[in-house]
Each structure stands twice: as structure tokens, then as C-alpha cells.
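Researcher: Please predict.
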Amino acid sequence: MSAMKTMILCGGGMRSLVATALVLAEPRKQVISLLHLVRAGEHAARRLSFARRQARHFQTCRLVELAEPDLAPSQDPARFDTLLESILEHAAEAHIDRLIWPAQFDGDFARLAAMTEHVMLLRHRLLARGLNVPRIETPLAELTDIQLGELGAVMNVPWELAWSCAGVGEQPCRECAGCRRRAAVFAAMLLDDPLLSQGSMRRQPAR
């Protein structure tokens, strides 16, 4: 039996780190790739750096770096559709069987239901165009931030390979929304964040 081709969206953060560990723990035979949307800017460069670190850690995973399409401002409601359509078109061309989207809705089930319906409609629209669109799985969708952290801890994921900060510095700013959410997770688990430990941010070799 041929191996299943699985692609995981990888933003370089905590969710993609946990999702990749989950997929690798599955007993099925599969070929796994990580997909990172490459954007411009210093913050985007940090995300890309951590996506590459995650791919190096999970040695069986190949990182695909896909240039993000030229999009309207982030508040444009069509932006999400354009991004997802680009991802699904790429996955179809690569003959991917399933796409792992590590989206998380932190217990907001109404938003989860609405987004699930929206994604299904978009997928069916692409299928109607004759594209061999992979099925989409969201294994983290129902988890809260704390549950995500607990799952990652059980799987012993290397949290120092996940970047959550919206800043552009070498160290997390500790003030942005991403840093505050991350700090709350580690506080709830009574664990130290390895990114804030002395020497945890040593420069990685360039790819």
C-alpha cells in the first residue's frame, strides 16, 4: 500500500509544533511535508526561521516554502479565502491526500462551526473546478490554549522551537498578545518557558 501524503501548515509557532508531533505519532505509513507561507518583513523572517527549526527537528519532514500571494489588507474578508485557495491549489498539484490545518479556536465552538462550514464550501468550490483537493483536518480546533500546552507537554515537544511573539527582536517582547497567551500557558502548567531561559536563543546555523 502506498504511503499517505500529508501536508501540515507550519507557522513556526506552538500549534504547528504540536500538530506535527501528533501526525508523526500516528501508526500509518505516510510522507509528511510542512508548508510555510513566506511573507515579507522582519517578523515574518522570525516565523520562517522557527518553521525551519521545526522541520530540522522532525527529520522525516520536508519544509516547503511557498510565497504568499499578493493580498489585500488583513482586514479584507476575502484575504482568508485567497490564502486557503492558494494553499489548496498547491496541495492539489503536489497530490497531497490530507492537509493538516493546526487552527485553534480556544473553546469558541460557534466560531469553529462557522469556520468549518466556510472551509467546506470553499473546498467544494475548488473540487467543482476539477482540482484534486485534499481533505482538511483540524486536530487542534477544539482545544483551549491550556489544553494545547498540556498536550504538547505530554508529547514532550521542544517548546524552544516555537515562536509566539509579534515583535522583531531576538528575544520575545513579553508584551504582545502572542507572548501573553504563551506566558499564561506556561504559568498554568507550572513550567518555565525555555525561550526565556538563559542561552535558549543561541543563533541557529543558516539553512
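Model: The radius of gyration is 17 Å.
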